[in-house]
Amino acid sequence: xxxxxxxxxxxxxxxxxxxxxxxxxxxxxxxxxxxxxxxxxxxxxxxxxxxxxxxxxxxxxxxxxxxxxxxxxxxxxxxxxxxxxxxxxxxxxxxxxxxxxxxxxxxxxxxxxxxxxxxxxxxxxxxxxxxxxxxxxxxxxxxxxxxxxxxxxxxxxxxxxxxxxxxxxxxxxxxxxxxxxxxxxxx
Amino acid sequence: xxxxxxxxxxxxxxxxxxxxxxxxxxxxxxxxxxxxxxxxxxxxxxxxxxxxxxxxxxxxxxxxxxxxxxxxxxxxxxxxxxxxxxxxxxxxxxxxxxxxxxxxxxxxxxxxxxxxxxxxxxxxxxxxxxxxxxxxxxxxxxxxxxxxxxxxxxxxxxxxxxxxxxxxxxxxxxxxxxxxxxxxxxx
DNA sequence: GTCTATAAAGCGATAGAC
DNA sequence: GTCTATCGCTTTATAGAC
Lengths: 187, 187
Known about the structure:
CATH superfamily of one domain in chain A: Tetracycline Repressor, domain 2
Number of strands of chain A: 0
Oligomer: homodimer
């Protein structure tokens, strides 16, 4: 389990997995130490602000990943339709067909909502805006594109909840497939 | 804040609100005491199994409420279409347009998922099955009805996540309205 | 930069008086 | 049935050696 890590950026993915699996409150320093192989001394050296700074750093890293991998192609990519297809494929891979929780969504349902309010709002607002931009580039009206984008992002989050509660990854794939069909049907 | 309560059933709604606001781990006995007005002695008198029994009792009460108010009319009510309309209206009221979390959905995203796995699975399975039954009674095929029911239940959960993260109840109402329109369009 | 030791507080749960 | 006092454990965070 112990890993040799010497850069703050290398710890973030491991940290993210602990927060995803146990939530903010359940991610005790003992579990974080076990998952990263870093003692408290090292952790507080990298994150002087303690657990709150660790979670904030993880959220920032997640936001950066989605911006790079998903939002940017939707907004600025040469082929909006291909960017939308890529988004659905990337979501299935990233959330492991619903086995892996969306940390931002999980934080939104827990009492971490207030503490990280800005990060949560920005994450979903950016996602909806990027997808709406792609749909507009495909000819949808601004209002229609925004509504459709909201529905898709909501469907992804709902699919994660359902798949985890039912213990069934097929429902995740099914719901994402329907969302994809609905949003690409009219363009 | 302190209330005079003398029956176990009277405590459950207050308990539920504490779990909803703070999650399972965040719902400390101190907070539960503050919300219910009951000391630890009384709480362990009503719930000898401690916090786990409290949460299980809350989940059971929630399941009973949905069964009575939503599932039964969908399954057995005289007017399936009216039962579906009632479901959407009841959801908007129950979840306060996304201000109030679905405890079952929140538990599914947290590490409470394994501990209460059966209750979570049953809640969503019953919801999907009841809605699918209503749609079948309206003439949809079994497969089509089941898929549509999954999409609606997922949309409700996704709408809660989005509304809470964006701090915007309008998105909840909007998404539920679209889900309702989509599911009632073809019947 | 990483460790151990420890502080200070909060946790769930129990015991026993009333 | 409700209370207070308390146990034993875990928590986050800090201090200081190396």
